[in-house]
Design a protein that fits this description.
This protein is α/β, with parallel strands linked by helices and 320 residues long. The chain has helices at 9-17, 33-36, 67-79, 101-112, 131-139, 158-163, 170-182, 200-213, 230-236, 245-258, 286-300, and strands at 21-26, 86-91, 117-124, 146-154, 186-193, 217-222, 225-226, 264-267, 277-279. The chain is globular, with a radius of gyration of 19 Å. The protein binds iron/sulfur cluster. Iron/sulfur cluster is lined by residues 32, 34-35, 43-44, 47, 52, 94, 125, 152. Iron/sulfur cluster (SF4) binds at residues 32, 34-35, 43-44, 47, 52, 94, 125, 152.
């Protein structure tokens, strides 16, 4: 297999588990506290609720703990998975830790019993994650599972976070990151490139910040303006634009060059259904953008970590 100019999470997973690994995403109805509790005007400005959901689930204002819904989603997903594939259980939708610890344990336990998973991954907000929740997640490692938590950050710049109405700061993220690492969890993070008010300097700084925070993996999103999000109004008022493919390429390369080479790249591009996407007008899909990026990084003779700290020379991923 040809070497890539970035550290591929998919390849790492395959080597670690000796088989292709399929993520099975479920929505247990945890909802998002940031949309429900009034800390932001309807949540983050780039979010239209369902845009981050799975299986077409709508925004859930309160925890439902809907195990039956999880069972149905899982059964549908498993129909399409070949028997030779290792399974990763992913609580993807909204904030997967948005419930009391006892309720989380009930849902995680029951779902993990439904199939022979090799890994558990839970996506959430930095301010919806604490030591007790980290300890609960860490306890699943005793079953032989890889356990990850994915925290939304988007940018390390507090001015940008305020503008996005994220409702937390970069320090809040760093605190949650330390909590995750102390519990032995793999730590993934979501960032968005091409945010309003940000250029290559801010993008490189976010990459540097992630290396210093000890993250193990990153999901890179490029800014999409989604129908029904607060950002739609800003775009119609002429206050924001979403970068096209050329700037997306420059932004992604700058980010990867500043990123510790040990950080696994879990995704490279945002994919929004065409009916919901307002901007950019030209949005290459995952396969097309991955090919463009690989070609352009080779042409420039660059790779992940080229501009990261010179002390970080070990290219091996640091998750145990
Ligand atoms: S992006 Fe995530 S944290 Fe922000 S409002 Fe949407 S679901 Fe909530």
């Amino acid at each position: 297999m040809q070497d890539l100019p970035w550290t591929s999470y998919a390849r790492w997973l395959r080597e670690r588990h000796g088989a292709p690994v399929r993520r099975v995403a479920v929505d247990a109805g945890f909802g998002c506290p940031h949309r429900a509790d009034g800390r932001g005007p309807g949540g983050c400005t780039f979010c239209a609720g369902g845009a981050v959901s799975v299986a077409g689930a709508a925004a859930q204002p309160r925890f439902r703990g809907d195990l039956e819904a999880v069972r149905r989603q899982l059964a549908r997903a498993l129909e399409r998975v070949p028997g030779t594939t290792a399974l990763l259980l992913f609580f993807q939708a909204f904030s997967g830790t948005n419930a009391p610890v006892e309720e989380l344990a009930r849902i995680y336990d029951a779902t993990l019993d439904l199939a022979p998973f090799v890994a558990l991954d839970v996506a959430t907000r930095p301010d919806c994650f604490d030591a007790r929740k980290a300890e609960l997640l860490g306890s699943y490692r005793a079953r032989g599972l890889d356990v990850w938590v994915e925290l939304g950050l988007q940018s390390s710049d507090d001015r940008t976070l305020r503008r996005l109405h994220r409702g937390h700061t970069a320090s809040d993220f760093a605190r949650a990151a330390r909590t995750a690492k102390a519990a032995g969890l793999g730590l993934g993070v979501h960032v968005i490139l091409g945010l309003p008010g940000e250029g290559l300097t801010e993008i490189r700084e976010t990459a540097r910040f992630l290396g210093a925070a000890g993250v193990d993996g990153v999901k890179i999103h490029n800014l999409h303006v989604v129908r029904g999000s607060p950002l739609e109004r800003e775009m119609l008022a002429g206050e924001v634009t979403a970068p096209g493919p050329e700037r997306q390429l420059d932004d992604t390369i700058a980010f990867l060059e500043g990123l510790d080479p040990r950080v696994l790249v879990m995704r490279l591009v945002t994919e929004t259904p065409p009916g919901r996407l307002l901007a950019p007008r030209r949005a290459p899909g995952k396969t097309a953008f991955t090919r463009m990026l690989d070609t352009e990084m080779r042409r420039r003779g660059t790779r992940q970590g080229r501009c990261s700290s010179p002390t970080l020379l070990d290219p091996a991923p640091r998750i145990a």
